Sequence to fold (439 residues):
Amino acid sequence: MNDNKTNPTTTTNGNGDPRLWPIATVMATGIFATTFVQTQTLGYLPFNHLLKHMGLDSDKAATFFSLAMLPWTFKVVAGLMVDGVPLFGSRRRSYLILSALTALGMWLLMGVSPGNFNLLLVLAIGMNAAIVLGSTTSGGLLVEAGQRFNASGRLSSLRVFAQNLGAGVALPVCGYLADHTMSGKCPLGWTSAAAILPLACMFFAAWFLLKEAPLPEPVEHGRSAVEQTFHVAASIWRQIKNVLRPQMLLPAALVFFIQAVPTFRSTCFYQYQTETLKYSDAALGWLGLAGYGVALMSSGVYAWGCRKISLRTSLYGAIILTYVSALPYLFYTAYEPYMMRAMTIEGVGTFLQYLAYLPLFDLMVRSTPKGSEALGYSLLISVWNIGLMIGSKTGPTLYEHVLNKNMNSLIWLNAGVTLAGVVFVFLLPKALVNASEGK
Fold:
């Protein structure tokens, strides 16, 4: 794609090029929508509430969420499609539109379905598969624009801002829904209705703002079905070869390790808060808003800092901040009016956690090979999600069966093991991490 006049992502100069911002807007809208409607955000408290009333403990509830989130571990497949298999002559726009419409359909089906475990699980998996496609495409846009405009840190900050905004807005909404609409034959009806607006915004942003140049290798109309298939397979193979590079191995190991550490931020903490500390679902929604609201500032901090210090220094800081972000949760107490202590803990802990995540996202953008932006980035995000699935499952398992439901022991375990990630940062290649953004 060499036509700068028709493709807004191909420019390589200037931090203020106006052609960057339509792409950034579509990317941020896609990230917001695919974060807001997840089972782990909009569906988190309604599903937890429903599963608890079905008699499932935190370990079994974690199994539901892990299986529902399974498509996120296969983002690499979505990346292969987005980079290597054009849809209606598009590598980005059509996939975003398809994702929005399919996810909307899945949520509507969940809204009219009874509270049946197996049925809801199948629909949740289908919905997550749809938004994985949109998230992967948004990631491809981020990497393209980040590398071509030399703005990986700032766009990664925008990505995390959109992600935190989506999660922060979703939590008080789903807290209210979990407390007030969990009865009748369709317990998730109002929850599904809340998914309509963000998915519609994603659809219209892609439709009106995203312009793409003609594909460099259009499929000729005269080809036979066999030739068409060979052409698609060859394109996919080129993408696979492009990402099988050593430059991605250590970054993948680092992000996997950080996420695979057994975490207390899972279903066990929900049941600890509601059963032991007596918080309502609505209260947890407001606590989530407080946490993610403060975490929005982390994006501004890193957008400034990424141009001042090297990425390696930021990554060392990220390991330390991940350790520190767990410690405030040791001071959680039982529910009290106004929840000032709990809001402070959530604000500080979530801010530090996402400030620690930003250098990791920056690293993933830098280590993704050009020409395979969606595939390379989705591969690293898949590694992240596999680690997260492991950590989110092992944490509740340890809490229920090994630590005798001692939450503080799980918090210390999570914090302490995280520090070993320093080893991976030390081994990262100099060319990848020794410079700050713009240098």
User: Anything to note?
Assistant: Residues 61 and 70 are 14 Å apart (CA to CA). The first helix runs from residue 20 to 36.
